[in-house]
Amino acid sequence: SRLSPQLGLSHHSVETAVVAQLQEAYQKAANKLLGWVTSQLERTNADKYGGLQVREIVFRNFCRLYHYGKVTGSKEILEWVARNKDLQRNRVALSTHLEKPANRWELRTLLLLLADSLRTLVDTGSCNDLRDELAWALSHMGLNQFHLGLSGEARENVIEAVELFTTLVDKEKQHEFRPALATTLYRASKIADAMGLGQEAREQAERAVSDLVELVEDRGRSDLQSRLGISMALRGSLKNDAGDVAGAMKDLQRASSLLASSSEDKQRENKSSQVEVQLELASIFLKARDIDNAIKESGKAVQLATQAAEELQMEELQPLLASCHTSRARCFL
Asked: Is 264 exposed, middle or buried (0-12, 13-18, 19+ CB in 10 A)?
C-alpha cells in the first residue's frame, strides 16, 4: 500500500469491502451465538432463578440474547426473540428476582436492552402490536431508575410510556391497556413529586385516580381496588402538600378504607401503604390540633405495622413501626 496508495487499505472501495465482510462475519457469529444462548435459557428452569449463581448466569444470557438478536441485523430474528412466549415468561421471572434493591443495576441493564430491541421493531412500522410491550418496558425501567436515584431518566421513560399507552387507550380504543396506563400515570406522579414538580405530579395523579375509579366502580374491576387505594393515597398526599387539607383528608380516608377491604392476597403487599396513609392522617389531625383523632389514626398505624412486622414476619417494616410509635408519642406531648 505504501508503493501503490490507490490499492491500499485506505482506499474507499477496499475499506468498504473489508467492513462489509467483517459485518457479515459478525452477524453470522451473532446468529450462531444466539442459538446457543437460547438453548441455555430453555434448559434452565425458572424455579432455580432464586439461586445466586443460576440467576447470574441467566441474567448474562438474557443480556446476550437481546444483544445478539439486534447484532444479527435480521428483523425476523429480533422479532422472534421478542415474541417467544417461553422467553417472555422466563424474563418476567428473572425480573421479579432483580427487583430487589441489591439487584437493581442488573435490572436496569436488562430493561435497557429489552426496550432497545422493542423500539427497533416498533420503529419499523410493521410491529405496532408490540407498542404495549415497549410501553411496559419503559414504565418498569422508569420505576427502577427512580429507585436508583436516576429521576431525570426515570421521568423521560415514564412520560414516553404514558404517551404510548394514551395512544392505545384514548385514540385507538384498546381499553384493555387502561390499567397499565393508570399504573404508569401513578409512577409518573411519584417521580414528578420527588423532583419537586408539584403541578405535574397532581395532574398525573388525578388522571390515574380517574381511570381507576372508572375501572373499579363503573366496570367492576375489584382486582384493581388496592391499586385505586394506593393512587388515591398519593393524590391525597399531594393535595395536603398543596394546602388542600379537606381534600387530602377525604382522599386519605377513602384510601384507608379501600386498602383495608382489598382482597387477602393483596393485604400483605399493601401493608406499607396502609401504614403510611394512617401516619399521614395522624399528622394532618395533629397539625389541626385534633388530638383525639390524631391518637386514633396513629394507633391504627401502630397496630398495622406491628401486625406486619411481628405476625407476618415483614422485618423490612421495623423502621416504619418505629416511626408509628414516634408519631403516636407526639400526640401526647
From this structure: exposed
Count other C-beta atoms under 10 Å from residue 276's C-beta. 21
Question: How far from the centroid of its chain's Cα atoms is residue 156's Cα?
Answer: 13
| CA distance linking residue 81 with residue 76, whole number of Å | 9
Summarize pLDDT for 71-113 with one digit per residue, the tens: 898 999 999 999 999 999 999 999 999 999 899 999 999 999 9
Which residue in this structure is represented by grid cell 444470557? 61
pLDDT digits (tens, 9 = 90+) for 139-176: 999 999 999 999 999 999 999 999 999 999 999 999 99
Greatest Cα pair distance, the chain, in angstroms, is 96
Please return the burial class of 272, using the count of CB atoms within 10 Å of its CB with bins 0-12, 13-18 and 19+. Answer: middle
| DSSP reduced 3-state for 200 | helix
Scanning the chain, the segments in alpha helix (DSSP H) are 12-43, 52-71, 75-83, 85-98, 104-122, 131-147, 151-166, 178-194, 198-213, 225-241, 245-260, 264-287, 291-306, 318-330
Look up residue 295 and give its three cell numbers: 391518637
Phi, psi of 193 (to 5 degrees): -60, -45
- Give, in order, the Cα–Cα distances in Å from 117 to each of 70, 81, 134, 281: 7, 9, 9, 45
- 286-289 long-range contacts, Cβ below 8 Å, gap at least 24? 286/330, 286/331, 288/245
d(CA 330, CA 333): 5
What's the whole-model pTM score? 0.87
